[in-house]
Amino acid sequence: MNKQKLLLTAVLLSLSTGAFASSWSCRHNDNVREIHVEQSTSAPVPCSVVYRKLTEGVEDEVLWTAENDAGYCEDRAQGLVEKQTAWGWTCVETLSEKNSDDETLADETAAESVSSEPEPAPAAEETQAIPAPTTEAKQAVETTDTAAGN
User: Fold this and answer.
1) Judging by beta carbons within 10 Å of its beta carbon (0-12, 13-18, 19+), is residue 82 exposed, middle or buried?
2) What single-letter DSSP state applies at residue 125?
3) Which helix (H) or strand (E) holds 141?
4) Mean pLDDT by 10 residues, the chain (150 residues)
5) pLDDT at 6
6) 88 within 8 A of 8, measured Cβ to Cβ
7) What span, in angstroms and rounded, lies between the C-alpha atoms of 107 and 110?
8) How far apart are CA 35 and CA 73, in angstroms?
9) What is the pLDDT of residue 21?
């Protein structure tokens, strides 16, 4: 499973181009957080690093901004992703268009569905029950057994 996540991350990183903002989606248990580098123009600055706690009901936070240093926001965002990972979160880079308010959780969910692991067996309540034989079927079996001398 870890090899798949590494491969997925490498693929997503290789697909990142100037047409996309840097974004990561991080999960821990039922919590989802996103880290976005947002730019108001096609230039690398000005920029800001936005932190979203999607499942916790709090407002987005702008953690860092830069006006002059082209690599500042990218470096800060990557550092936060590394900290999240060290704290036990699973983070993947996601592709989102610049200045888009669309959630990137769907991208991560779609990426997770590309698993080569077999699907787990359905739970007992999800399995299809085989109906019990009817009274007529039981009588037919008994008649057949009697006729056969059993």
Assistant:
1) exposed
2) G
3) helix 135-147
4) 50 40 92 95 92 95 95 96 97 71 42 42 44 53 50
5) 47
6) no
7) 5
8) 11
9) 60
Rounded to the nearest angstrom, the gap between the alpha carbon of residue 74 and the centroid of all alpha carbons in its chain is: 22
- SS3 state at 127: coil
| CA distance linking residue 25 with residue 92, whole number of Å | 6
CA distance 117 to 146: 51
Q: Could you tell me where the beta strands, DSSP code E, fall in the chain?
A: 20-28, 31-39, 47-53, 61-66, 90-97
Q: How far apart are CA 20 and CA 98, in angstroms?
A: 5
The residue with tokens 């009697």 is 146
**Does residue 53 contact residue 31 with C-beta atoms inside 8 Å?**
yes
Q: Which of 35, 143, 145, 38 is nearest to 98 (CA)?
A: 38
Q: Which two tokens stand for residue 34?
A: 């996103």
Interatomic CA distance for residues 48 and 46, integer angstroms: 7
Strand partners, 36: 23, 50
Sign of CA dihedral 78, 83, 86, 87: negative
Contact at 8 Å (CB) between 93 and 22?
Answer: yes
